[in-house]
From TrEMBL:
Organism this protein belongs to: Sphingomonas aerolata
Keyword terms, alphabetized: Cell outer membrane, Membrane, Receptor, Signal, TonB box
Record carries keyword Signal: yes
Biased composition (Low complexity): 53-64
Signal peptide: 1-34
Compositional bias of kind Basic and acidic residues: 766-781
Designated name of the protein: TonB-dependent receptor
Main location: membrane
Sequence ranges of Polar residues compositional bias: 36-48
Length: 1127
């Protein structure tokens, strides 16, 4: 009996002719060379008859079986070859699989695998730099993928573990160049032999192997990418070659590839606040108020809601310039004889990214002092809400727990435009609102290397043994530098996500006056020069600086062995049995992650009058500290109006160089005597990256050992009526051992600053009373809480956690071939996804919070104590907050069901699939009570805030896919093709739990852990996803027009600025590519984001679900021109 699935290894020619394997028609980073493929006249693919499953993880999905009937020769290449191959993989897969091939990736205008995967049915791309769904950090390239709305994705290289050393489990697909990939398989359900870890799916990246080609080959490509916002060109290129030859001891093959790709891009972003309630005065304007803290709520006491206006004076202008340099190296060596095949591979991917982000912003939610006035109002009537919150809890006021959740009704309409002015810091001579200009310099470096060795032994026609070994090591590091300035301005604003308009002005009365401050001992009592424009260095003060470091490294050893035995050919009931397969795998992953939170400190803020404001124009070398950046072309122009279109930011040369940044701040004389309290967390070693200073509690070491075994039985049967079935069922046993070590740290209280009772408040040399005599003895936690102070002063101590989890994962897959063209598929599996490695870190920090009770305010101006600081009436311990990792997290588990009807025909297929998933133990942010302790005579709760297992979710939906080439149309129309898919998803999850309310007063202890409106949507999940691709291909010309659209989706449960949930709006992106072949030379061009689509978002503002505009981001259009030479 001839095994039709796994023929003898020496029969390579027959295998090549009988399979449209993905890799046999693909060249890394280039379209396939023309191949004459023998196919049936009606392209009818029969069900498998017998044989062993392919147990090589790198090649398993490639099996394609064809009836050896009368055939005709057709030439398959390029786009068509890729889609034909993907169709065959999908049809003959043992479970639910969709694929794309290297030809497909290289043809689409996609610069990374992540972007190309966005074309696969049910797969969406994340366009945010945090990989998840953070709405504040968009990315110039796709950063990650969700499968059917879920992010529990397992990533593989050639069927093996692949990861980045960034604390997560998934390989950063945006870092993988298309030139490296032969094909990508997306598994949406499981078989017992697939490695566990992806309950939403597994994405397997397959590289080209030497035996995928029959002859020596060489391909050289060169491209140039122009980005139209950045107005820069970036080169890329690759060289790929391979050969195979026969010797007396067997056949050898080798393939090698090297590529380098650069990209310079820009992102523009406009943000605005949600409707902020303010009271209209008798003139129809919003007056400036001096209410602060909780007193702001009194503005609405007794006011008719018809006089309360929804105002939108806040804004953010953001631009981010990103420079990415990606390099990849790949080599593979194969050898085989009649019974053995040996494959060795080496993969190395490196990526360096430098970016300069600049934001120019002011938001009323974070306005802690005097509230701005708004005049020249244009109001949209009819807008209203039963109640909106005034602040986010992450900044601004509240003074008391629950203040942010006080709902203010709005019935006075919505501000469409207005003039915003402020005198919040008038005591310094400043007039206008303090607009923040923040510059952030980021440097990111990552490297992943993978070594693998695979041995396949087929001693008999029925037995196949595969042994596979792998070693992977990865490293990543990131550094951020923040430089924050203030510029005092007024502005006229008309907020809008498509066409916002804002015009800034400098108030002529604005003039810094160092002698008129709340502090004594000023070095200069003379007013400074008034700034003449928004870009004048004399109008900008250096407020703060911050740094942040993250360094990670990890490695993984894995070994697996699989045995498959062909039991087909028996009569009767035993004839149903086709093959048995069993095996085991062991892996050990070790990862060390060091990370510090953003380390913020004051440089010379405006409220500091003790030696200088840090006014940039007065610096010794001001142009080294700052630069004026024009926003005239922001959003392609027209947003920033009037003469003030240039703003002051920290110099990019400093933001790009940590050592230079530190040296400048240390050397600037103006900052020497100010309120400079920033303590850098890195050393100046002369390098641009710097050397981070990690405390013991900043580092965690995690070792994870997994051992698993599986058994799988395959059934096949052909019925007399022409129908047939193919099924597999099995079970996988998984044992996971985790050891996490780190440090338990305690956060010390800030030292009690000694402030005298008398001070010179007006610079006349006379000391006036500012505090009572006993105020200093009762103004700090140290004056009330000695045990709490001692608790926070403890040294960090080592801690270690161990845990073991065991899981049994059954699976069942059935393919019922109704006839030669139509089949019905069913799949069920139980799966698991382990928590992110960074979430399992043992290091934790314990922080004692305090509650301060002030004396009742004195309102009688004749009272001798009016305006005098009396200290605190009492300060008590609140609770102990524990943050950082949770090494006791358990895996998330899911039951997955799929049912599909698929019809295949020459040139295409049509399929309809339904799916359902039920998930448990989802890891999400929440609070967890750990116990109590006694401090200063009080029972204090110990509360962990971070990642916990507490959510469940259900996901169901349908996928419709259609693909066809219209060969039967006349003339040039016969070269047309179409590819389309639509996915509908209906999901819900447990709403995020609010934080702990330890005192039972109805308010959570930490306002930032309060989640409004009970939103039960899944992050990043759209209800509707659509891909439509039009294709033209003849013997020389290939053209593709691709449109990708998705409906709105939740990006965060709690926005930092508003405190509310934010939804990205529906959006579609149109891309195109053209290729023309002239012999061995291919000319190619592509355009991404032809429609210049903005990524917009809206914020939910009240319990009714009402949405309002929140932000809009615009990416470059990318235009690529290139050539490909192949032999």
């Amino acid at each position: 009996m001839q095994n039709s699935v796994f023929p003898a290894l020496s029969s390579s020619t027959k295998r090549f002719l009988l399979s449209t394997s993905a890799l046999s028609i693909a060249l890394i980073g280039s379209p396939a060379m023309a191949q004459t493929v023998s196919s049936p006249a009606n392209e009818q693919t029969s069900p498998p008859k017998s044989g062993l499953p392919d147990t090589d993880p790198a090649t398993a999905p490639q099996t394609t079986e064809l009836d050896e009937t009368t055939t005709e020769d057709i030439v398959v290449r390029g786009i068509r070859a890729a889609l034909e191959s993907a169709k065959d993989i999908k049809r003959n897969a043992d479970t639910v699989v969709d694929s794309i091939t290297a030809s497909d990736i290289a043809t689409l205008p996609d610069l990374s695998v992540a972007e190309a995967l966005g074309r696969v049915p049910g797969v969406t791309i994340s366009r945010f730099a945090t990989g998840g769904a953070s709405p504040d950090f968009p990315s110039p390239e796709g950063q990650g993928n969700l499968i059917r709305g879920l992010g529990f994705v397992r990533s593989e290289f050639n069927g093996r573990d692949a990861f980045s050393a960034n604390g997560g489990r998934v390989l950063d697909f945006s870092s993988i160049p298309p030139e490296l990939i032969g094909a990508v398989d997306v598994y949406k359900n499981q078989t017992a032999d697939l490695i566990e870890g992806g309950i939403s799916g597994t994405i397997n990246l397959r590289t080209l192997e030497p035996f995928d080609r029959q002859k020596p080959f060489l391909a050289i490509s060169a491209d140039n990418t122009y980005t139209d916002l950045r107005k820069k060109s970036s080169p890329s290129g690759s060289i790929t070659g391979g050969s195979r030859w026969k010797t007396g001891i067997g056949e050898f093959g080798v393939v090698a590839s090297v590529s380098r790709s650069k990209l310079s891009s820009r992102i523009n972003g406009w943000q605005q606040n949600s409707p902020f309630p303010r009271v209209l005065d008798a003139t129809g304007n919003v007056p400036q108020t001096s209410l602060t803290g909780a007193a702001k709520l009194s503005e609405f006491t007794g006011v008719d809601p018809s006089r309360i206006l929804g105002t939108t004076p806040g804004f953010q202008l953001r631009t981010n310039d990103v420079d990415r340099d990606r390099r990849s190296y790949y080599g593979a060596l194969q050898w085989k004889n009649d019974t053995l095949q040996l494959t060795a591979k080496y993969i190395r991917v490196e990526e360096d990214t430098d970016s300069i982000e600049r934001t120019f912003e002011w938001f009323p939610e974070h306005d802690t002092g005097t509230t701005a006035g708004i005049s020249n109002l244009s109001v949209k009537p009819g807008f209203g809400s039963d109640g909106v919150a005034m602040c986010s809890g992450a900044g601004g006021f509240p003074s008391n727990p629950g203040d942010c959740e006080t709902l203010i009704p709005i019935r006075g309409g919505l501000m469409e435009s207005g003039f915003v002015t402020n005198r919040i810091d008038a005591w310094t001579g400043a007039v206008g609102s303090p607009v923040g200009s923040l510059g952030i310099g980021r440097t990111e470096e990552s490297k992943t290397e993978d070594f693998s060795l695979n041995l396949r032994w087929q001693p008999t026609e029925r037995l196949l043994v595969t042994v596979d070994g792998q070693y992977t090591k990865a490293s990543a590091r990131q550094r951020q530098i923040w430089g924050g300035f203030n510029t005092y301005l007024d502005w006229q604003i008309a907020p809008d996500l498509d066409n916002p308009r804002i015009a800034f002005s400098v108030n002529p009365a604005h003039r810094f006056n160092p002698g008129n401050t709340r502090f004594s001992g000023d070095s200069d009592a003379n007013p400074l020069a008034s700034p003449t424009s928004a870009g004048d260095l004399n109008g900008a003060t250096w407020q703060f600086a911050a740094d942040q470091f993250q360094v990670g490294k990890g490695d993984l050893y894995a070994f697996r062995a699989d045995t498959a035995y062909d039991v087909s050919g028996s009569d009767g009931l035993a004839g149903w049995f086709d093959s048995v397969k069993f095996g085991g795998r062991y892996s050990e992953r070790s990862q060390t992650n060091s990370e510090m939170a953003l380390n913020w400190g004051a440089i010379s803020p405006a409220w500091d009058g003790r030696g200088g404001y840090g006014v940039v124009g007065t610096f010794q070398e001001p142009t080294k500290a700052a630069e004026a950046i024009s926003f005239a072309n922001f959003f392609r122009g027209g947003v920033v109006e009037g003469p003030n279109q240039t703003f002051v930011f920290a110099n990019s040369a400093l933001l790009n160089d940590y050592s230079a940044f530190r040296k400048y701040l240390n050397a600037e004389p103006q900052l020497a005597n100010g309120n400079y309290n920033w303590v850098p967390r890195g050393t100046d070693d002369g390098s641009k990256f710097g050397v981070p200073i990690f405390r013991p509690e900043d580092t965690s070491n995690i070792t994870e050992q997994t051992a698993n075994a599986y058994a799988r039985l395959d059934l096949k049967h052909e019925f007399d009526n022409g129908m047939s079935i193919a099924a597999n069922f099995g079970v996988r046993y998984v044992r996971t051992k985790l050891r996490s070590t780190g440090f338990q740290a305690f956060r010390p209280f800030v030292a009690d600053a000694q402030t005298p009772a008398f001070a010179d408040t007006d610079g006349d040399g006379v000391l006036e009373r500012t505090r009572t005599d006993d105020a200093e003895s009762r103004d700090d936690p140290a004056d009330f809480l000695p045990q709490s102070i001692a608790y926070g002063a403890q040294a960090a101590v080592p801690i270690s956690f161990k845990q073991t989890n065991e899981n049994w994962l059954p699976s069942f897959n059935l393919r019922w071939n109704v006839d030669s063209q139509q089949l019905v598929r069913f799949a069920y599996s139980k799966g698991l996804s382990r928590p992110n490695v960074q979430d399992l870190r043992a290091s934790q920090e314990y922080v004692v919070t305090t509650n301060r009770v002030n004396f009742p305010p004195i309102t009688d101006e004749n009272d001798p104590l009016f305006g005098i600081d009396r200290g605190a009436q009492n300060i008590t311990a609140g609770d102990i907050r524990v943050n950082r990792g949770n090494p006791l997290l358990r895996p998330t588990t899911a039951d997955s069901f799929d049912l599909s009807i698929e019809r295949y025909f020459r040139g295409g297929y049509f399929s309809v699939a339904g799916f359902y998933k039920s998930l448990s133990n989802i890891v999400t942010n929440g609070d967890l009570a750990l116990g109590t302790t006694t401090l200063d005579g009080q029972t204090v709760n110990i509360i962990y805030n971070g990642q916990v297992n507490q959510a469940k979710a259900k996901v169901k939906g349908i996928e419709v896919s259609y693909q066809q080439f219209f060969d039967k149309l006349p003339g040039v129309l016969s070269h047309l093709g179409f590819q389309g898919n639509y996915t509908y998803i209906d999901s819900s999850t447990t709403p995020p739990a609010n934080g702990v309310d330890s005192d039972g007063d109805g308010n959570v202890d930490d306002q930032t852990t309060f989640f409004r409106f009970g939103v039960d949507d899944l992050l990043g999940q759209s209800d509707h996803i659509l891909n439509v691709v039009g294709i033209y291909q003849d013997s020389a010309l290939e053209m593709r027009l691709a449109y990708n659209w998705r409906s709105k989706y939740l990006t965060t449960y709690r926005d930092y600025v508003t405190g509310n949930p934010v939804y990205n709006s529906a959006a579609g992106f149109l891309d195109a590519s053209v290729r023309y072949r002239i012999g061995p030379l291919t000319l190619r061009t592509s355009v991404a984001n032809i429609l210049d689509t903005k990524s917009k978002a809206r914020v939910q503002i009240d319990q009714s679900g009402q949405l309002y505009d929140r932000f809009s981001f615009l990416n470059d259009r990318r235009i690529v021109f290139g050539i490909l030479l192949q032999y």
